[in-house]
């Protein structure tokens, strides 16, 4: 009753209300002054604006849906971009000299790192794309042996031809019915992705020796593909979401959805592994060596028979999913962007068609084949003509299609399947351009930006020009540290030749017998994932041609 009414009994009982208000005002002024000074210092700096504690996270989140173009804008102004984040610092690089330093010269200092591994572990586990050191070397050695195998190359050629023909048959029926077709999503009952189906079926056949049939004419439901896409989107979001660990702990929001998706993925993957193990056992029991399969999964299963290799079902699961993301998503995405580039550049479409026609005539003469007389209105006649053409496409002869190779490569320059690739930093270092990077941070080379930089490709860098890759009619490679679609250095993509083989097989058939036109008003933009997938697919109308 007799206490001073000016005392604040709730929070600070020994401070009067006036004193309390003064303290709050001083603290607020200090905080505002701190923010003001922080922002004032940035008035002449390049790069994204940062805030105390949050760094550039706010601007990154605001530009998340267009992140690759956001980075390209800053990297066009400066070849190196330093982006502070709440718990780390990202250094983005687009200069080939810096890229070579990170991917080759000082390779051991820039592993995938613990940060990247923790973000991607739920999906990729300890697979080849998510590990470093001895574990990575052992997996790469085994995979390298398989990719160098003539048996695998010949088998891949047959499989890629088979599934390209299945896709052609679906498009043939769609063209007869005058349907709009989505080159990533056919607008049918199931809304599934055609190219994704083709490459998923292919990688499962080539990589794991199993037929899963997602490209069947009735386009069956594929829960694995859908779950894999969902998981891919969510783990990508983790890179700029500081709250993902809390959501994971509480199993709420996107992390709860991720957990459900991983269960579907694992159920599918472990069933593939058990099926292949059972087939291998049955083959050995019958002593039928002719039925032995030479797929990648079988190779790892055989290695697992040696207990010293310590290969468990979990290890095999990680192998499967790493090769799925390598053989399915990247190839399908590139095929979609390639079709988009071809149909939006008429002169490219016509020059490519001319090359494919000339190739067909030359191969028919070599093989002493009389070309069938087809009819675009007769489905059976048309399909027989396509099949005849496909038989002329072999691993060696596809190498003659220099312009097709240039079209695919130019697509990858502007629309690389992996638009960003982050690396950890083990020790403090200085990049060739003088940029200092600190241990514990991340360095990310950015293929999407690199392909658009005039300082890398000249004043026409933004233009789609397959001709830039040709010299006197023959394809000419660029430095892998400048054209980084397949990475470079010790981690350069083992499946590069296989990817080109499948893409050339599919495009040779599609662009020889079909014309594509973009549906008016259909938006074409990328979706933020680890892979440069199209957000709304690629909706086209189809016409046949001979």
**From the structure provided, what is the oligomeric state, counting identical versus distinct chains?**
single chain
Q: Could you give the order of strands across the largest sheet? A: 1-2-7-4
Radius of gyration over alpha carbons?
27 Å
Mean pLDDT: 85
CATH fold type of the largest domain:
Cytochrome p450
Number of domains: 2
Structural class: alpha+beta
> What are the low-pLDDT stretches, counting only 5+ consecutive residues below 50?
1-9, 184-192
- Please report the first level of CATH classification, the CATH class of the largest domain: Mainly Alpha
> How many E-type strands?
11
CATH superfamily of the largest domain: Cytochrome P450
| Main β sheet profile | 4 strands, mixed
Sheet-strand content, in percent, reads 5-15%
| Structure annotation, total helices | 19
N to C succession of SSEs? HHHEEHHHHEHHHHHHHHHEEEEHHEEHEE
Which architecture of the largest domain per CATH? Orthogonal Bundle
Estimate percent helicity. 40-55%
Termini gap: 101 Å
Cofactor: heme
Family: Belongs to the cytochrome P450 family.
Keywords: Heme, Iron, Membrane, Metal-binding, Monooxygenase, Oxidoreductase, Transmembrane, Transmembrane helix
InterPro entries: Cyt_P450 (IPR001128), Cyt_P450_E_grp-I (IPR002401), Cyt_P450_sf (IPR036396)
Structure description:
Helix 5 (113-124) runs antiparallel to helix 9 (223-237), helix 7 (150-176) packs antiparallel against helix 15 and helix 13 crosses helix 16. The protein has helices at 17-41, 57-62, 67-77, 96-105, 113-124, 133-147, 150-176, 194-208, 223-237, 244-250, 253-285, 296-304, 313-343, 346-366, 379-390, 402-414, 447-450, 454-457, 496-513; strands at residues 80-84, 89-93, 180-182, 421-424, 429-430, 436-437, 442-445, 470-471, 474-475, 514-518, 539-544. The model is unreliable at 1-9 and 184-192 (pLDDT under 50). The chain folds into two domains: 1-26, no CATH class; 63-544, Cytochrome P450 (Cytochrome p450, Orthogonal Bundle), CATH 1.10.630. It is α+β, with helices and mostly antiparallel strands and 546 residues long. The protein is built from 19 helices and eleven strands. 53% of the residues lie in helices and 7% in strands. The relative contact order is 0.14. The strands form four sheets. The chain has a four-stranded mixed beta sheet. This is Cytochrome P450. Keywords: Heme, Iron, Membrane, Metal-binding, Monooxygenase, Oxidoreductase, Transmembrane, Transmembrane helix. It comes from Thlaspi arvense. One of its GO terms (cellular component) is membrane. It is found in: Membrane.
């Amino acid at each position: 009753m007799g206490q001073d009414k000016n005392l604040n009994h709730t929070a600070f009982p020994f401070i009067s209300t006036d004193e309390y208000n003064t303290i709050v005002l001083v603290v607020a002024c200090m905080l505002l002054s701190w923010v003001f000074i922080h922002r004032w210092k940035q008035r002449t700096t390049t790069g994204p604006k940062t805030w105390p504690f949050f760094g550039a996270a706010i601007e990154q989140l605001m530009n998340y849906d267009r992140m690759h173009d956001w980075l390209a804008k800053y990297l066009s102004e400066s070849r190196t971009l330093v982006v502070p984040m709440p718990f780390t610092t990202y250094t983005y690089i687009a200069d080939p000299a810096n890229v070579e330093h990170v991917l080759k010269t000082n390779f051991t200092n820039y592993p995938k790192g613990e940060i990247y591994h923790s973000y991607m572990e739920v999906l990729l586990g300890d697979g080849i794309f998510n590990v470093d050191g001895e574990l990575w070397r052992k997996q790469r050695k085994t995979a390298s042996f398989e990719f160098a195998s003539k048996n695998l190359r010949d088998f891949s050629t047959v499989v890629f031809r088979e599934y390209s023909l299945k896709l052609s048959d679906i498009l043939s029926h769609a063209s007869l019915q005058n349907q709009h077709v989505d080159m990533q999503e056919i607008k049918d009952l199931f809304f599934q992705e055609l190219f994704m189906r083709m490459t998923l079926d292919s990688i499962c056949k080539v990589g794991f020796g199993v037929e899963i049939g997602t490209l069947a004419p009735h386009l069956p439901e594929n829960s694995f593909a859908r779950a894999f896409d969902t998981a891919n989107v969510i783990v990508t979001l983790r890179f700029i979401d500081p709250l993902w660990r809390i959501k994971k702990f509480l199993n709420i929001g996107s992390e709860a959805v991720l957990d459900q998706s991983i269960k579907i993925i694992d159920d599918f993957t472990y069933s593939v592994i058990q099926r292949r193990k059972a087939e291998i056992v049955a083959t050995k029991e019958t002593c039928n060596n002719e039925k032995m399969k030479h797929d990648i999964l079988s190779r790892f299963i055989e290695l697992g028979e040696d207990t010293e290799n310590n290969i468990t079902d979990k290890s095999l699961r990680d192998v499967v999913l790493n090769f799925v993301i390598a053989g399915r998503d990247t190839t399908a995405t590139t095929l979609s962007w390639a079709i988009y580039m071809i149909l939006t550049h008429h002169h490219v479409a016509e020059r490519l068609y001319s090359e494919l026609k000339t190739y067909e005539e030359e191969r028919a003469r070599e093989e002493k084949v009389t070309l069938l007389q087809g009819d675009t209105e007769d489905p059976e006649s048309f399909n027989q003509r396509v099949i005849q053409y496909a038989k002329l496409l072999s691993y060696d002869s596809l190498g003659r299609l220099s312009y097709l190779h240039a079209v695919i490569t130019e697509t990858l320059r502007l629309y690389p399947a992996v638009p960003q690739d982050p690396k950890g930093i083990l020790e403090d270092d200085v990049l060739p351009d003088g940029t200092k990077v600190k241990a514990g941070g991340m360095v990310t080379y950015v293929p999407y930006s690199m392909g658009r930089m005039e300082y890398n490709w000249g004043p026409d860098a933004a233009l789609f020009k397959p001709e830039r890759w040709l010299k006197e009619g023959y394809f000419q490679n660029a430095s892998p540290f400048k054209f980084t679609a397949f990475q470079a250095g010790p981690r350069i993509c083992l499946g590069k030749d296989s990817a080109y083989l499948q893409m050339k097989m599919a495009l040779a058939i599609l662009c020889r017998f079909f014309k594509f036109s973009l549906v008016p008003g259909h938006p074409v933009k990328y979706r933020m994932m680890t892979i440069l997938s199209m957000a709304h697919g690629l909706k086209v109308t189809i016409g046949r041609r001979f």
